[in-house]
Automatic annotation (TrEMBL):
One of its GO terms (molecular function) is oxidoreductase activity, acting on the CH-OH group of donors, NAD or NADP as acceptor. This is Dehydrogenase. GO terms for cellular component: membrane. Keywords: NADP, Oxidoreductase. SUPFAM superfamilies: NAD(P)-binding Rossmann-fold domains. Belongs to the short-chain dehydrogenases/reductases (SDR) family.
Length: 247
């Protein structure tokens, strides 16, 4: 994909987990492109601080209280966006947790696995389905699931490939998310909704104690690109900054 492959008309985007890290930079990048950005975040103080910062940078941003693990919160978020914008053009499912550590499979506290799946997978399905009616009102709806290359079974089983630490909650939750992305793409084939997974790369954020080597802005770029692909863009695929990632 080239950098010039962007939709002509910026619309309304919801970014989940947009109060910090990569999600904040996805919101900032879309805002800079002229999109109206709904900042989905569960903590009121951090949400409003992010909205203020985005607005100060010139973005058209508004806050949306959102806990992706909570049905009522997600339903209310969809209603709020419907009231403010009437439709949704891009949904970026960015919110995620690691589940905490340690995560060696033979000794893991299974609650860590449950928590990672609840947020990183079921949360994405819950949010996507609640927002689909609004996405269907868009002329060019896009869904981007922020995944990770650690969820790639192809890479996890390639000798010598860089696949991060052993993490039976976080990594398989991203494998599950990848599989979910493919199922959505299959059901939505033939509609104008394009859905893809992306990997931001190893990025310095709270998620990894700021050990990542990329900046959040660099990590955000691939999600922004897939949120703005034209109507003949890809669907049901997995990308990072270098191109396509094997599932
Ligand atoms: N950083 C990396 O190296 C890396 C690499 C590959 C993929 N990723 C992916 O990139 C995405 C962003 O991660 P990040 O590195 O920017 O991490 P981060 O700084 O920890 O941000 C995660 C965001 O998700 C939000 N969140 C968590 N649970 C939520 C819930 N139940 N409801 C709503 N929001 C929730 C957090 O909100 P609170 O502030 O309220 O906790 C926060 O805004 C994630 O999908 C992650 O898996 C990151």
């Amino acid at each position: 994909m080239s950098e010039t492959n962007t939709v002509n008309h910026p619309g309304v985007a919801l970014v989940t987990g947009a109060n910090k890290g990569i999600g904040y930079e996805i919101a900032a990048g879309l805002g800079a492109l002229g999109w109206s950005v709904a900042v989905g975040a569960r903590n009121e103080g951090r949400r409003e601080a992010a909205v203020d910062k985005l607005r100060a940078a010139g973005a058209d941003a508004f806050g949306v209280p959102l806990d992706v693990t909570d049905d009522a919160s997600v339903t209310a978020a969809a209603r709020l966006i419907e009231g403010k914008a009437g439709r949704l053009d891009a949904l970026v499912n960015n919110a995620a947790i690691t589940g905490g550590g340690p995560q060696e499979p033979t000794t893991v506290d299974v609650e860590r696995v449950r928590a990672a799946v609840e947020t990183n997978v079921i949360g994405v399905i819950r949010v996507t389905n609640a927002l689909l009616p609004l996405l269907r009102r868009s002329p060019s709806p896009r869904i981007v699931n922020v995944s990770s290359s650690v969820g790639s079974l192809a890479l996890q089983t390639t000798p010598g490939a860089e696949t991060g630490p052993i993490a039976v909650a976080y990594a398989p939750s991203k494998t599950f998310l990848n599989a979910v992305t493919v199922q959505y793409a299959k059901e939505l084939a033939g509609t104008n909704i394009l859905i893809n997974a992306v990997c931001p790369g190893y990025t310095a954020t709270d998620l990894n104690g700021f050990r990542g080597v990329r900046t959040p802005r660099q990590g955000a770029a691939v999600a922004i690109r897939l949120a703005t692909v034209p109507d003949d863009g890809p669907t049901g695929r997995f990308f990072d900054d270098g191109g396509e990632v094997p599932w």
